[in-house]
Structures are given as structure tokens and as C-alpha cells.
Amino acid sequence: MSPAGAPVGGLLVLVDPVARRLDGESVRIARDVLSAGAAAKICLPQSPEEFARALARRGHRRPVIVGDDRALVRAVGLLHRERELDGEALSVVPVGQAGSLGLARLLGVPLSAVSAARAALDGVVGVRDLLVDDSDGVVLGGLRIPPVRPPAPRAGGASVRSAYRSLVRTLAGPPAAPAAGHRLRVEADGVVLADVDRPVDDVAVAPGGGGLAEVAVRAEGAVVRARAAAVTVAGADFRYRADAAVSGPVRRRTWTVRPAAWGLILPR
């Protein structure tokens, strides 16, 4: 890691609208700390389009994202697609519901607004690998293809409230029925780790450092592990969770590691 140094053009503080709505006090604290420590332009975009325009017009200002994991992934994805991620160091002040800050925690960002804002001012740059898929999507922390959960039986005449409670139980509690495996072909740098002739229970891919991804495939109780620069999954329609979002269904997806592709400012 290397010191971030004073931002030449100051800071561009992008406050996600969800963060403002959920925790205005933490947003206020972050703004106060950042404004006291550097020349800071505060942007309050109302939509993803305004967020993208503000980031594109940042000039020499260093971006600071105030928001949850989705806001951070959105910023990195935008800079990647504009081919402006190389050499750009970002900061994030995590603000959001507890369940929406897991990526920030994984990356080593303090969850305290004060601590994260101070790190944005005088922290060090940690250079990180990035996973990029064949649709130009980005993965910062990791992705997973979980087992398929069979749909719960629908009760006739169920109310919206009871249906919602059933959904919450399905997502948060133990499954009511055994999960089914996927019929997938998983390749790591061309080496087949699993094929469609047997069900795959779980696939996990994450940046592993050194320009390679860590790959784990679980099938029939056994786990196959590998390190690879590119991972391809193909087969029947499948969904996957990458960082903060669920994507799919798709029938084929390749993720490629971009070594040292982006920088995140962390506490010293």
C-alpha cells in the first residue's frame, strides 16, 4: 500500500440517494469530516444517471462514495466502462442498512462514518484485482452460484403480508425442501472442474491476488479448488450473486481477472 496523498483537485463527494434517505445523520457526519479536511464538492444525485454524470465530470477531484455496496460497485463499474479506472483511487464511506455493507467490510473499509471519512482524507491506497465478465460487468469482492431452491407451494387466498413473510422465511431461514444442483460446465483457464453430467451444488469465484482468481466448485459433497486468470461457467439457465446484486438468468458467463485494476483508500 502507498499513501494516498493530498488530492490535487480536492474531493468529489457523491452521496447516494438511498444513504440520504436511510441515515441522514451519518451522511451529515461524513460531509462535515470531509469538508473540514479537504476542498470537497458535495454532489447529491437523485438518480443513477445523475450519479454517472457527476462522476464523469469529476475533473481532478478524487471520488468519495457515500453509500452502500451497490453505490461502490456502480462507481467502479462506471469508471471501468469509461476506461478511466486505471490510476484512479476511490474512497467509500459506508452508509446503509447493515446487510448492504458486507462488501465494504470485506474490503477492509471501516463501517464508522467518522473513521471511513478520515481514511478518505489520510489513508493509503490498496491496489486490488478486479473480475470483469464478458458483458463488461465488474466484481469487486466475489461471486457465487448457489444451489437452486425449489419454489414454495402457493396457498390460495394468501394475503400480501403472509406472502411477504413466507418470502422472508425462504430467504433467511432453512430451506423447506432440499436444494437442487445445477447442470453446469465450469472451466478454469480451460481446465474442466465440473461438467453437466453431474449436478453442481455451489460455485464461488473471488479475486485471489497475484492476477488470479480463487475458484471453488462443490459437487456431490466434494470441493474442487483452482486458481485461474479466467473462469467460464456454462449450462442451463443460472443466476449468480456478484457483490451486492443478483444477475441472470444466463447460459454462459466468463470472468477474467484484471490485475491491479483499481485502488481503494483504506486506513493506515
Automatic annotation (TrEMBL):
- What terms describe the molecular function in GO for this protein? kinase activity
Record keyword Kinase present: yes
Keywords in UniProt for this one? Kinase, Transferase
Question: What superkingdom heads the lineage?
Answer: Bacteria
User: What protein does this entry describe?
Assistant: Diacylglycerol kinase
SUPFAM superfamilies, per the entry: NAD kinase/diacylglycerol kinase-like (SSF111331)
